[in-house]
User: What shape does this take?
Amino acid sequence: MKVREKLKRAKRQLENQKKMIAGLERGNRYLHGVCERAQREIAAQQEAEKQKDELMLFLMAGCALAAGGAVTIQTENMSRVLEEKRVLFHADFEKHLATVSVEDRDGSG
Assistant: This one.
């Protein structure tokens, strides 16, 4: 094989490697963007859960105040019992009222 052929072959290989590197860099940028979006979504979900937890604590504190200082709730088997019920929440921001009610799934209360 002549030197000129070897040079052409080496140049072709170099160009192919440059194309592969460019493709890998594009893929890396894409995956970096996907990761950033996923992290933002996770952070937003965590913030929503935190706000939900704070709201529930706020409502429980309001229930305790409305009941004269304390509310005791039996939590044993609560998940199983609540599966049979429908929990309704209504907030009237103008009157500053929140109503939480539980009724049977069939609507009978």
Summary: The mean pLDDT is 89. The longest helix spans residues 3-66. The two ends are 91 Å apart (CA to CA).
